[in-house]
Specification:
single chain; mainly alpha; disordered N terminus
């Protein structure tokens, strides 16, 4: 049941614009990082003693240096660091510093209290279990539908290759496991969802940010499960009044890419069993968590 606070929510055009603004800013940041990277690569090539400046061109740099795994890894780190700086600062200013001054809506105090209670419980452990089980479940489902959507999986496979297997590197893993979850949670569950809940009901606000989170990933395969994941992360942020549980779950899911036993997906039978078992684990773990956290939720007012 929705809170009475949201029964008479009025649409505010400014808030709706701000729902989409973080995503637009992320696109701008991405292109700035790309352009900056190309400039750096060009300068490195010019200063190199082994290469002649006369033979250097933008096309040469893009073909030879830009798509190298380590270059992509450092670009990812740069992009997520900028995301984090921009969106964490924005979130702090709007939802912590400014609002904490008001007597009616002390968001800063709510966040501190909620974080303290969350870490004093078994919730982080359950979230890690849910994260790992979710990755196994997604992999199982994708293995089953892969023969039907071969073209759609081509782009996804190329993306995953930059994170695991022969293309993995500590730099990329830091970007994917640590920096990306933090930056994306502040961006989507903090800002996008935060502004959405000012103008639309919690249910539609959570679904909207989940849908935008799916679009943000840029390909149909990731987009589908990112929508489901984003919706769950949005609910966690709404339920606990803090981004911490979502960050833990997001990190667990991204990190689990490194420890997925491929033997579970060698046959259709084992794949189906994996999907069924992990699906049950996810549902059971969430049920247990939501029962255990009842006291935490009751002690927190709706933000």
């Amino acid at each position: 049941m929705e809170s009475k606070k949201y029964s008479n929510v009025q649409v505010n055009i400014k808030d709706i614009i701000f729902v989409f603004l973080p995503i637009l800013i992320s696109v701008v940041i991405q292109y700035v990082v790309i352009i900056g990277d190309i400039i750096v690569l060009f300068i490195i090539n010019v200063l190199s003693d082994e290469r002649s400046a006369k033979t250097i061109s933008a096309a040469t740099i893009l073909e030879r240096d830009y798509n190298q795994p380590m270059n992509m890894a450092f670009m990812s780190v740069a992009r997520y660091l900028i995301y984090g700086l921009v969106f964490c600062t924005w979130y702090y200013k709007v939802y912590v510093r400014d609002n904490s001054k008001g007597a009616e809506n002390k968001v800063g105090e709510i966040i501190k209290t909620s974080c303290k209670k969350t870490f004093a419980s078994i919730i982080p452990l359950i979230l890690i279990i849910v994260g790992y089980a979710s990755q196994l479940f997604v992999d199982a489902i994708m293995t089953l539908v892969r023969p039907i959507f071969t073209e759609a999986f081509a782009q996804y496979d190329k993306l995953v290759a930059n994170v695991v297997g022969v293309y993995s590197s500590p730099v990329m893993l830091i970007a994917v496991i640590i920096l990306a979850p933090i930056a994306e949670e502040f961006m989507f569950r903090g800002l996008v969802q935060g502004y959405a809940l000012k103008s639309i009901s919690p249910i539609w606000g959570i679904i909207l940010q989940g849908f935008l989170f799916g679009l943000y990933h840029g390909n149909i395969v990731q987009g589908v499960y990112a929508f489901v994941l984003g919706t769950l992360l949005g609910y966690l942020a709404y339920r606990y009044k803090t981004l911490v549980p979502g960050i833990i779950l997001h990190m667990a899911i991204n990190a689990s890419l490194l420890i997925i036993p491929q033997s579970l997906f060698e046959t259709t039978t084992t794949t189906v069993i994996t999907a069924v078992v992990t699906g049950i684990v996810i549902v059971a773990a969430l049920v247990v968590m939501f029962k255990k956290d009842k006291k935490i939720v009751e002690d927190n007012e709706i933000v």
